[in-house]
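re: ur msg from earlier - yeah i can do the alpha-D-galactopyranose complex, just paste it... oh wait u already did. ok heres what im feeding in:
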Amino acid sequence: MKGLTQFLSLALVTGVLTMNSCTSKKETTEQKSGIEKASYGQLADGQTADLYTLRNASGMTAKITNYGGILVGLTAPDKDGKFEDVTLGQDSLSAYVKNNPYFGALIGRYGNRIAKGKFTLDGKTYSLVTNNMGNHLHGGTVGFDKVLWTATPIEGDEPALKLTYTAKDGEEGYPGNLSVTVTYTLQKDNALKIDYQATTDKPTVVNLTNHTYFNLTGGAKRDILDHVLTLNADRFIPVDKTLIPTGKLQPVANTPFDFTKPTVIGARINDSTDTQIKYGGGYDHGWVLNGSGDSLKLAATVYEPTSGRVMEVRTTEPAIQFYTGNFLDGSVMGREGFAYKKRYALCLETEHYPDSPNQPSFPTTVLRPGQTYKTTTVYQFSTRKE
Ligand code: GLA
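and the outut:
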């Protein structure tokens, strides 16, 4: 009976796998694209969250919950065709609620830091929640990573999940009711595309991103120091001790921040002679992407030699935060009771520059009524045999 109930709780919303036509578990193991919905648990306020599994025809899956819009898992094939999870994640909704260092989460209203949680817009100063060394980080204590989004599955051979959330005027200190739509699409070509859109009823600031931690070994077998990274960026954004930008941009040439050519991440990560490496405890900085305009451009390529997996990141955003899991210390339990240690993952958060609301020389993050905020980021997976 329990099995039957569980089965009935799955709503298969694809044209191929509809709830009516689904007669056996076998169908889900076939390489059919679609979306499966299952209950993910209850939150303290009684609301329930769901877990959606998007699958494409080649067998790649993306698991997403509408709690925090969290990407709970993402599989990709290695050079022998073996699918494994390439992200860090936790085992249950309650684990994510209890303590999530932003694994897989959607971040907003402002991804990254705002100095002292203050900014002035149109002559009015706003005070935001401060939650990180006196600064505002990732939208505050209840950012978009901790709210329940409304989910709409979209059928097709490129299954998608549309998430919507309206942040209230004054939420975490920000002005304006902000209506946000984020759509995850699992493409046929083994890419996960994330489209972000937002509108406001008062002038505000917006900087949305996703905070997935990647480890391309599959199943976080070891740290990411042997991953090879290329960043399409000639400049990076130096910070102070509290990781707030100094306001100047620095050429990467002749620094440990030069990833213009494929470079092993671990090669210079402990260069204690470099003040910026010291401040970040490794890499925890924004890089200014080369090229301008709103078109999708290649921002980063990551290659993991043992699995042969390659991830390419394309974005319309002007910058990318490269973070090497410096704050992971084994205290957060990951999947199957596995404790993720320092540098067991890397994040490539596509976004605007940190603290832009206080830096007139940085590209603006102001959104006004009548305007539409629109950005896209694509994480594409392939393999290379060497
Ligand atoms: C971002 C920040 C880091 C850290 C992580 C979460 O990447 O830049 O400093 O806060 O999020 O731990």
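cool cool. Helices lie at 2-8, 26-29, 93-98, 275-280. ping me if u need the other ligands too
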